[in-house]
Specification:
The chain has about 300 residues and is an alpha/beta fold. It contains eleven helices and nine strands. α3 runs parallel beside α4. The termini are far apart. The mean pLDDT is about 95.
Length: about 300
């Protein structure tokens, strides 16, 4: 297929958001606050419906969502879901539309999706994000982007709306996704460390708050440590990033590490913990529910 010329425009783009779960709905709201037109679609339409009251056009099909949009944002669970959405939207796309692919899918799926986009005449930007529910809703994500720099002016209003920082990594799809896996490795290992500290405190009869008080304000303290610990201690595990999604990302990291000859012992252990917590029914809770994988057997489900 012949390549479609890239038309750079500085107008305020209309954005089709495919996938309005925890992250996608937050990003859609940030786009609406910035005054951009939003067309929203989700496979389960009830997850997109609340956006209509905030000014979005909620469509029944992916094809309707992308028709007439300047930028298409995909925020779905995995590469297969994104591929299915592109297939469903195919008859509504037009050459030169920008696909901002923000789902965390890993390098291999990124290559496949980039080819699918090219076949549809779309300009592909590999654009995973760092952040969870609250940053998505506040327009405070960090967006890693790799793709043709010629389209930056066209997509900057979208990036500025959803993120507080955009890191342009390179021109080739996959460069941003590889960086995202490194960032997620840090997050996953940190979550596991927090969970294990709370597990050990419980096991030794130490008040977990004493641990948090000792850490507070010191060089090893962080808002992440305090926030995730507070979620466990309060029992409020409303997901800002679901454990089952963290498990999916952990598997992507291990797959990429294996192909590159790298051994990641901590991530492998985190995957095992996530699997045990998911099997115990915590998959839909926040990823700090990995805490439950380390409790004594008689308390693991409490």
């Amino acid at each position: 297929m012949t390549s479609t010329p890239v038309h750079v425009t500085r107008k305020r783009p209309t954005v089709a958001v495919l996938g309005t779960g925890i992250m996608g709905s937050g990003m859609a709201r940030s786009l609406l606050r910035a005054g951009l037109g939003v067309r929203a679609w989700n496979r389960t339409q009830s997850k997109a419906t609340p956006l209509a009251a905030e000014g979005a056009t909620v469509t029944e099909t992916a094809e309707e969502a992308v028709r007439g949009a300047d930028v298409i944002v995909t925020m779905l669970n995995d590469g297969l879901s994104v591929a299915a959405a592109l297939t469903a939207a195919a008859s509504g796309v037009h050459g030169g539309q920008i696909l901002l692919q923000s789902s965390t899918v890993g390098p291999d799926a990124t290559a496949d999706l980039a080819q699918r986009a090219a076949d549809l005449g779309l300009v592909y930007l590999d654009a995973p994000v760092a952040g969870t529910k609250q940053p998505a809703e506040q327009g405070a994500l960090t967006v890693f982007v790799s793709g043709p720099s010629a389209v930056r002016p066209s997509v900057e209003p979208v990036l500025d709306a959803i993120g507080q920082r955009t890191v342009w990594v390179g021109e080739a799809p996959g460069e941003a996704s590889r960086l995202k896996l490194v960032v997620n490795t840090w997050v996953i290992n940190m979550v596991g460390s927090i969970a294990e500290c709370l597990n050990l405190a419980e096991g030794l009869g130490v008040d977990p708050q004493s641990f948090l008080d000792v850490m507070k304000g010191g060089p090893l303290d962080s808002a992440y440590l305090q926030g995730k610990s507070a979620a466990v201690l309060s029992g409020d595990l409303t997901p800002s990033f679901a454990l089952s999604t963290a498990l999916k990302d952990t598997r992507l990291i291990l797959e990429a590490a294996g192909r590159s000859g790298v051994t990641l012992d901590l991530v492998a252990a985190s995957a095992d913990r996530f699997e045990r917590a998911e099997a115990a029914g915590h998959g839909g809770e926040d990823m700090i529910a990995t805490y439950y994988a380390g409790r004594p057997a008689e308390k693991a489900g409490d």
